[in-house]
């Protein structure tokens, strides 16, 4: 056996435990990786800060250009509702809210504070004067007609965009001011009570005149809602009772044809808003 040990080319097995052949990472390697990670993080933070500073400068430039634009076109902004709506969109893209305060550059330049304050008062008057008839729900189209009548022909024209912006400012006063999209219609709510899914669906079906009211647009019947909404009579009765209690729906038992009781929804009834 001793001869074999001296044979040229023989493989010598390592002496000692296998773990001795594996080098564990040293303290220097750990420190190097930590320093590399910290350097990468620092570079990333510096790049983010440079990018943020660039965005700040661009935004400041946009705002300056917006102010110059407003100075050149302030007459058109005041006179033309469509032009004014586009101007508001430009302001929103630049992070500027011309309606944020009644004082300051925008209020003094364009008179927005007084304009939207006056419009808000007219909207509130229109909604309050008709609340007994519609329970505090008024379609935007009908509200526009009432506001324009109050403003007369001498006042500056207003658009639906103006009315919606004025309503948005009324929200800070409380009282439940909000805008609800029910089908293709936008309903203005001026009372604290919220519309739930069922009451909103009843209003939508009444507005459609698709059979829920026996062919009459603006109203519904119990059997019509059972058929069109697929609800049980108990669910229909609950939704209608809620609308009647709030004054949003009116009961009509005066049908000369002796048909089923009708529930009129004034805010979407052409017969009651014309």
Alpha-beta content class:
mainly alpha
How would you write the strand order of the largest sheet? 1-3-2
Tally of helical segments: 12
Q: What percent of the residues sit in helical stretches (DSSP H or I)? A: 55-70%
Give the amount of beta strand, in percent.
Answer: 5-15%
Quote the distance from N terminus to C terminus: 119 Å
Average of pLDDT = 79
Low-confidence stretches: none
Task: Name the shape in a single word.
Answer: flat
What profile does the largest beta sheet have?
3 strands, antiparallel
Order of helices and strands: HHHHHHEHHEEHEHHEEH
Strand runs, count: 6
Rg of Cα set: 35 Å
How do the helices and strands line up, and which of them pair or pack?
Elements: H1 2-5, H2 27-79, H3 81-93, H4 105-110, H5 112-129, H6 131-134, E1 137-139, H7 140-151, H8 160-170, E2 177-182, E3 185-190, H9 197-208, E4 219-220, H10 222-229, H11 233-246, E5 250-252, E6 262-264, H12 270-273
Antiparallel strand pairs: 1-3, 2-3, 4-6, 5-6
Can you offer a commentary on this structure?
The model has no long low-confidence stretch (mean pLDDT 79). Helix 2 (27-79) runs antiparallel to helix 3, helix 5 packs across helix 8 (160-170) and helix 10 (222-229) packs across helix 11. The chain has a three-stranded antiparallel beta sheet, sandwiched between helices. It is built from twelve helices and six strands. Helices cover 58% and strands 8% of the residues. With 274 residues, it is mainly alpha-helical.
């Amino acid at each position: 056996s001793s001869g074999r040990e001296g044979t040229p080319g023989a493989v010598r097995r390592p002496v000692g435990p296998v773990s001795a052949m594996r080098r564990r990472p040293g303290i220097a390697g750990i420190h190097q990786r930590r320093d590399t990670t910290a350097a990468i993080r620092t570079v990333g933070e510096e790049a983010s800060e440079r990018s943020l500073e660039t965005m700040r400068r661009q935004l400041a430039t946009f705002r300056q250009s917006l102010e110059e634009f407003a100075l050149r076109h302030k007459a058109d902004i005041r006179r033309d509702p469509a032009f004014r709506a586009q101007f508001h969109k430009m302001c929103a893209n630049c992070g500027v809210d011309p309606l944020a305060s009644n004082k300051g550059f925008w209020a003094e330049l364009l008179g927005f504070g007084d304009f939207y304050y006056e419009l808000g008062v007219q909207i509130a008057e229109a909604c309050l004067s008709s609340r007994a008839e519609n329970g505090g729900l008024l379609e935007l189209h009908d509200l526009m007609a009432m506001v324009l009548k109050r403003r007369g022909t001498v006042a500056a024209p207003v658009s639906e965009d103006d009315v919606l912006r004025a309503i948005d400012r009324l929200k800070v006063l409380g009282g439940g001011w909000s805008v609800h999209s029910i089908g293709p219609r936008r309903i203005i709510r001026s009372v604290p009570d919220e519309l739930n899914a069922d009451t909103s669906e009843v209003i939508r079906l009444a507005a459609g005149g698709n059979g829920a009211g026996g062919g009459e647009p603006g109203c519904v019947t119990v059997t019509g809602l059972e058929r069109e909404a697929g609800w049980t009579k108990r669910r229909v009765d609950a939704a209608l009772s809620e609308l009647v209690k709030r004054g949003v729906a009116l009961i009509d038992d005066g049908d000369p044809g002796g048909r089923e009781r009708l529930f009129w929804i004034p805010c979407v009834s052409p017969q009651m808003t014309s």
